[in-house]
Amino acid sequence: MSEACCGPDSGNKVPAAPQKDKQEDQDNNEGWLSHWPLLSALLILLGMLVLEFGFSYQPPFPFNLTIYAIAYLLAGYNVLAMAFRKAMRLDFFNEFFLMSVATIGAFCIGSYSEGVAVMVFYSIGEWFQDAAVNRAKRSIKALLDIRPDEVTILREGVTQVIDPRQAAIGDVIRLKAGEKVALDGKLLSETSVFNTAALTGESKPDTKRKGEIVLAGMINLDHVSEIEVRSLFTDSKLSKILEMVQDATARKSQTQLFISRFAKVYTPIVFALAVLVCFAPYFFTVDYNFQQWFYRALVFLVISCPCALVVSIPLGYFGGIGLASRNGILFKGSNFLDVMTGIDTVVMDKTGTLTKGVFKVQQIVTAGLEQRELIRFAAAMETNSSHPIAKAIVAYAGDQAQELKATDVQEIAGNGLKGTVEGKTMLAGNVKLLNKFGITYPAEIDELVDTVVLIAIQGKYAGYITIADELKEDAKQAIQQLHQQHIQTVMLSGDKSAVVNKVAGLLGIDKAFGDLLPEGKVEQVQKLKDEGRRIAFVGDGVNDAPVIALADVGIAMGGLGSDATIETAEVVIQNDQPSKITTAIRVGRITKQIVWQNIILAMVVKVIVLSLGAGGIANLWEAVIADVGVALLAILNAVRIQRMKWS
Questions:
Q1: Is the dihedral of CA 354, 360, 361, 362 positive or negative?
Q2: In angstroms, rounded to a whole number, what is the distance separating the alpha carbons of residues 244 and 238?
C-alpha cells in the first residue's frame, strides 16, 4: 500500500453494532473531505478538456501551463514529496519516482493535459486501493473486536457497572438476555443459551450448563445469567485472538515476499528499458525524433508502475484471513494460507480432536477393595490432572473427590500419575504405567477396547475403571471431505491401540497408531516428513505442542485446546469442529487462486500495453487508463474473497 495519497486511518476500534453504520458514514465523509485537493484537480482537468475538445479553445501560454501546473500540484504533491524523500535516500527505483519522472517529462514536451491526467488518475487509483485495504483491515477487526465496553458486576449483593479491564478473577458477572460476555468465566446459572457465531462462525446456539466455560464475545440469548470471572480482560481467549489477527496481517506469504523482491528488480529494469526506448532508436533510424521517442518512453514508465501487484496481493490475503475468521478459523499469518494449499496429509490426535473429550465412567472393577474406596483413592489422585479422563473420574466421584488428599503427585507423560494417598504409594494410569513399575494385573484387561485407568496401591493391583469417549458429530464428515480432496488421513493417540483402531475403523481413517508417548507422535510425524509428505497436524492437548511445532502447519482446537497448543499452532479452529480442517484448506486455495489471477492479469496487460507504447500505438492517456484499470480490477477481484459465503 502506498504511503502517498492516503486518507486518514479509519481502522480504529469499531464500536458496538448500533454505532457501527454511523461510524462508517463518518469515516467515508472524512475520506472524501481529506481528498479535496485531488477532487479539485480532477475538476480543473475536466474543465480544461471540455474547453479544448468541446469548444476548441485552449488558453494561451503561459496561462494554460499555470492552470495545468496548479491541477498537477493539487493532485500530486504527496507523490512528489514522497519521491523527493526517497531520492534523498538514493532510492530512485520506486513507483513515486517513476510517476514523478513520467509526468514532469510530459510537461517538458508540452503534453500538459496528459501529464495532469496521469497524476490525477494514478492518485485516484491509490485512493481506491488504500480505501479497499483499510476496509479489509476494518472488517477483520470489526469481526473480532466485539468486546463490550462495560460489564455488570455483582459484589456483596449490589450490582455495579465497570470497565471490563477493572474486573478481577472471582468477580460475578450478571448478564442480561442479549448482552455480550465481556470476560472468560464459569457459568454459575443452571443453564443458559449463547450465540457463539462471532467466535466460532457457528450460527447454531450453544447451550451451556452450570460449571461450563463461557468465553468473551458470546451473546446471552436466554434469561439473566451469572458468570464467575476466570481470566483477566487481557488474558481472555478473545483478546488473544485479536493479538493473533493483528500479527497475522504483518506476516507475509511467500507470494507477497516474492512480489516485493520482484518489484525491487523490476523497477530498475523498467527505468533502463525506458532509457533504451528513448535513445536506442537514434542508432537505428534515419529520421530520429527525440520528442517522439521521449514520449514513448514516458508511456513505457507509466504503464510499468507495479502498484496493481503491490496492493492487490496483500489485499487478497487480508480477504482470506477475514473469510477464515468469519468461519471460526484463525490463521496466524498469510504465509500459512499458502502452506495449507500444499497439504497432502492430515495427522490428527484422537481425544478432543475427533472425539468430544467428554469422558464418562462406564464400569468399576475392584480387586480387594470396595468400589467406593477405589473411587475415593482414584479421585484424590486425578484431581491433580487436567486430562479429560481425570475430570471424568472426579465428576463421577462427586463430593467423595474431596475426602482424601493426594501428595507428592507427579505426572509420568503418556502413562499416568504417581503419588501418595493416606501414606500409601499409589499409581493411576494405563497398562504402561503398571508395567513400568513391574506390577502385574489380570491379562483380560489387555483385551478391553474402552479406555481403562488401572489403580495400584502399595505396589499391588487394586482394580480398574473403564471410561468411554464420544465421537464428534462431524468427525466422519471431516474424514470424507479430506479423502475427496485426495488428502491422506492419519490418527495418532496415546490411547490403547484397540480403542484407536476402533475409532479409525468407524471414521474410515487411512492409518492409525495407538499407545504413543509424545515422543512417539513426533517420531511418526518425522517418518511422514521423511517420505516427502506435506503435513498438517491437528491436536488440542499440551502434549501435542511438540508435534504441532514439527508439522508444516499446526492446527489447534481452540475451544478445548490448551494454551500451549494454541500458542504453538499456526491455525486455530475456534469451535473444535474437525470439518473446519477442509474449510481452512479451501480458504487457502481460493485465496491463492485469486492472488495468482491478479498477478497474471497485471503482467499480461502490462506486457501488451508496454509493447504498444514502445511501438508508438498507445499514448499516455491509454497508458494511465490501462494502469489504473488493471489496479482496480485486481482490487475488485481481491475484495471478492471478503464477500464469499460458506455453507
A1: negative
A2: 10
